[in-house]
Structures are given as structure tokens and as C-alpha cells.
TrEMBL record:
Organism: Prototheca wickerhamii
Occurrences of domain UBC core (ranges): 1-100
Name listed for the protein in its UniProt record: UBC core domain-containing protein
InterPro entries linked to this entry: UBC (IPR000608), UBQ-conjugating_enzyme/RWD (IPR016135)
UniProt xrefs under Gene3D superfamilies: Ubiquitin Conjugating Enzyme
Native organism taxonomy: Eukaryota, Viridiplantae, Chlorophyta, core chlorophytes, Trebouxiophyceae
Amino acid sequence: MRSWTGTIIGPPGTVHDGRIYTLKIYCDESYPDRPPRVRFETRINLSCVGPAGEVDPRSFAVLARWNRAYTMETVLVELRREMGAPGNRKTPQPPEGAMY
């Protein structure tokens, strides 16, 4: 199994509060030695997410410094933490339910 669907519920006290975000996670044959590719299906304005919804490994520390011990759960938890970071917690968001 290489393709997965993930869900993140936005952290409280942020513009993401209560929103449900859907992501696609793709693990190629080199996983877990190399990080998965992660792409949001639900539109989001987040500093580590590109214009097509892809999570930029250069801008997202978990993917940039991937460790074999990390899991898909690690990626999801850290993305949720990123939503609550000072630079992202109040960033205006697309309308709820908007998709890429």
C-alpha cells in the first residue's frame, strides 16, 4: 500500500479551528528511508504548502530532516502543529470546503 488518505482537524484557537483537512500521502518504494509525498486536497493557506496543495519538503522540517523512525502520524501531527504556529494561526483561509 503506497497511497494513503489522511485527515487533520484544525487546532483550536486558530483560523483552522474545527475545519477538517484532507490530505493524500504517497509512499514510494524507498519509504521509510525517504519521506512520503504529501498533498492537501482541501485548500489551505499554510507557509509550507505550495499553490497546488503540495507540502514543500524544504519548508517543512519533518520532511526536510526525515528520519526513518518518523511515521505518517508524525507528518500529520507536525502539520497540525504548523497550523498553530504564530505565522500560520491567523492567516486568512479559503472558504471552508474548497478543494484543489
